[in-house]
Amino acid sequence: MGQTMRVVAIAKALERRGHEVKFLAGDKLIPIIRNFGIDVIEITDLPEFNFYSGDQPDDSQQQEKLLAQIPQVMARMAQIESEIADKVRPDLLLCGSISGAKVGRRLGIPTLLVFLQPHGQKTLEMFTQRLKDHKIRAELSSSVAAADLIVVEGMPEISGGVNFEILGANAADLQGKVHFTGPLLTEYPDELPDRDILKEKFIGAKDKKMVYITIGGGSPLIGERFLQQVLESLRILPEVTGVVATGIAVSPEKIKSLRPPSNAIIQGFVPGTEMIKASDVTVFHGGSSTLMTCLACGTPAVVIPSMGEQEDNGSVLVQSGAGIVLDKQTLTPQMLAQAIQTILNNPDYRKQATKLKVMGEKYGGAEVAASLAEKLAVREAVLR
């Protein structure tokens, strides 16, 4: 979901500039992308692949089995992308998959490759584990080389000491090709109504404390026990209104069957940027899309990671004084309630989150990425 949303953000910026956009997608993402008013080319035979299965992300045997499938999945994705791109013949390929850049190079179509900035060593370790297979490593390296431009959602100030040489290219190869954008959002917080107006919209009271709890965009790591803990933490905080958004991960009816307290509002897929701007605290698993939206809104958060990448994302907030990270394995409703209350009672968390917001704004977001895409398409058209 995170990778999809950063590509959607650039796509919408291009549409606002008058360009025609078609988005190649399949399965559950089709209605979500269409909800943004983007024309979708449907993939009916999209290969299914979940890197993690069940609630045990450290199952090494399962991971090895899934790793072995990656080259096959990548090959099939490249075939699908190649067939559609050859048929549609766009002026530019905006690539959310690593196979897209090679497809563009082969067909003579300029490509802009979109990446998320890694925020620490755990992300790097997970990434290098996936690169143990020489076919995957070679595919990634050649994709980076094939891309005309690389857009990175993030800011070098919060990199956690990780650089991009892991992508298979040295610093010289990436010079002039990599552009940081800060958060990539479909809509930007400063263009939205004020927090009080948004609170009135979502919880019916601008003077109440609002906690937005988002449980992820389809992660298989979320179990019933975690959902029960979230609801119980809200029961401990009757003065707070909690909006629990299930996204595409869990049916809202599932949570309602757990007898939520009266101060919990259960929603499905919601306007995330509006929710995060409205909230006094956001609670999430550390996913990249929600992290970037918190940074863009200047909203402090409680992060409950399920894997190493999410831990690194949470550390961005902790190290900046803009959030708290809790251990999912030892989590109790009391611990979550206390973390929420700590942020609510200490204005320094929001002050530090606001500093991150200002830092990200100087990189320009989706509008800068769209401008880079335009210049690339024009440059290549002139060369042809």
Description:
- The protein folds into two domains: 202 residues, 3-Layer(aba) Sandwich (Rossmann fold), CATH 3.40.50; 173 residues, Glycogen Phosphorylase B (Rossmann fold), CATH 3.40.50.
- The chain is built from 16 helices and twelve strands.
- A six-stranded parallel beta sheet has the order 9-8-7-10-11-12, with helices on both faces. It has a four-stranded parallel beta sheet with strand order 3-4-5-6.
- The two termini are 35 Å apart.
- Helix 4 crosses helix 6 and helix 11 packs across helix 12.
- 49% of the residues lie in helices and 14% in strands.
- The chain is an alpha/beta fold and 384 residues long.
Structural class: alpha/beta
Strand content: 5-15%
The CATH superfamily name of the largest domain is: Glycogen Phosphorylase B
Mean pLDDT: 85
| Model regions low in confidence, pLDDT < 50 over at least 5 residues | 52-58
- Binned, the helix content reads 40-55%
CATH architecture title of the largest domain: 3-Layer(aba) Sandwich
Largest sheet descriptor: 6 strands, parallel
* Rg result: 21 Å
How many strands in all? Answer: 12
The DSSP helix count reads 16
3D shape: globular
Question: How many domain regions?
Answer: 2
SSE sequence, one letter per element? HEHEHEHEHHEHEHEHEHEHEHEHEHHH
CATH topology of the largest domain: Rossmann fold
Rounded to the nearest angstrom, the distance between the terminal CA atoms is 35 Å
Q: Would you state the CATH class of the largest domain?
A: Alpha Beta
Strands side by side in the biggest sheet: 9-8-7-10-11-12
